[in-house]
Structure prediction request, 604 residues.
Amino acid sequence: MSFTDNFIKKQKLTLSAKRAIFSISKYEVMFKKLILFLLISILFINCKNASITVLSSSNVADIINNEFTGDLAFNTASFVEKYWRVVGNTGFNKSIYKIAEELEKSGFVLEENATENDILTYRIENRPLKNPTWESVNAIVKIEGKNDTLLQHATNRNMIALNSYSTPKDGVSAEVIYVRDFEKIADLDVKGKIVFAETSPYGIYKSAIIEGKAAGIITYNNPSYLQPEKNTTSIQFRSIPIDTVNKSWAIAMSFAAKERLKASLEKGKTTLKVRVKTNIYSSEELTIVADIKGSEMPGERLVFSAHIQEPGANDNATGVGLALEMASLTAKFIKQQQYEPKRTLTFLWGDEIISTQRYVQEDSIRAKYIKWGISLDMVGEDTEKTGGTFLIEKMPDPSAIWTRGNDKHTEWGGSKMKLEQMKPHYLNDFLIDKFKQQGKRANWIVGTNPFEGGSDHVPFLRQNIPSVLFWHFTDQFYHTDNDRIDKVSKTTLKNVGTTALIAAYTLLNADKKVAKSILLNLETAAVSRLNEEFKQSKIAINNGDSLSTQIEIITAWKDWYQKSFTTTSGLFSDEKVINNDIEKSQKLIDSISSVIIKELQKKN
Ligand SMILES: [Zn+2]
Prediction:
């Protein structure tokens, strides 16, 4: 007899003993049962009530923090990151259909089947693709005479440059020619050889392949922020021009492979055996758009965008997954009648910049009423592994002209802007405030960077639609084949998604009261900015910078905030209600900046 059987017998004994005791008073038992039933019923009703609490400004942060798990975001990112995605290819399209499937599960109805009463709808837009799509299948590079491989696709899926054609089935064997000065490829005889250069293959494609008739290209140029000497196996993906005539190829190397190749070249003549297999075929361009229709101002909308293409997990399977969980949770709140957006909330997944550019242009009436655009790009990083922090890339403000103090450009880099490029708006400080609150709550680091561009916020800004980017940088695996799901953190996804929704719900239902609180928050931000710039200007003057520049900086910030104050009137129809408050804030900032300028003049 096993221990378990014995245990069960003992249990049975105890139960029957209990039964004997209870049978003493049958009525007592019935009474107890009734009490228990009532207790359970009350508990159940309470629980039910708790789960259908209507969202309000006082509970929205708590409820979303409880309900946003990061599970759907993470699982979707895990699905998407398996594929090397470029518009039109298998992975890109599978991601689109995965999103559609999950939207359906959450209650979204395909637009063509929807009725007027459907609040949750989605559509898949299908357009012909001008250029053929591309996907990598397999590749291997060997130094002839060596048994092991220099690189193989199974462990380095970024090794084939985008738009590369396949080699013949048995591969290509050719001598490597190391071109140190790649400006002078034309002076060399590279015909039939593999050109090795420490630059981007795109830049030398014409001289090496089209003009030089080289057999192929092999390159290395991982930037230093990837810490290539530490992350020796990373390859940052590269591309070459589409060339249907020469149908050539390029291989990008890791630091380790490059060192090996160089060592071999130092010893003497080096021949490489290269085998590349890719698929190049005509396809279609898919975009998926989900709408959550606003109840009062359906034309006005907030758009979250996430690009699908690019091969990484953080860039940008995380954005794809995060937008999906945000849409799905919002659908749940709506179905449970916890939340009703007054304005429309839109989620757009597609080809970076191309889809968003089209979205803000093609329908002029729709475009006119887009009130905000937020790009979700690299939003789930495990920063202990990747480095960097979460960042809100601000709409152009004077920190993009005079970057000093706490403001810092990322290693992605930005160019110095001009005053006429400024976009004064409340959105920056409104979002910074919301994210700092979550940062405090979740012990999470939130940073900002001056405008740099390069993602889906750019088309919105070009159309004068307020827009920011949520992202992370530096990421030591950015655009490399080591940007995989093990670098993604569910906690980060939860933090970004939670706060993005808190902010979104506030904006979507903003009224006079919300506008006034946003204005007040903006005024506080303006005062602290002017104080900080005052401090920086004093330091600058002590370091010999000119007074006139300092006055220019203080004035730029004053103007930026004064104009930003006026944008809060766009949050509701009756602008006059807030005009007095705006004027008051403007006067305050005016007087503070005058005092600062006078103080600086004294110092000089
Ligand atoms: Zn990206």
Summary: Residues 1-26, 42-49 have pLDDT under 50 and may be disordered. The radius of gyration is 30 Å. The chain has three domains: 65-129+284-508, 133-281, 512-603.
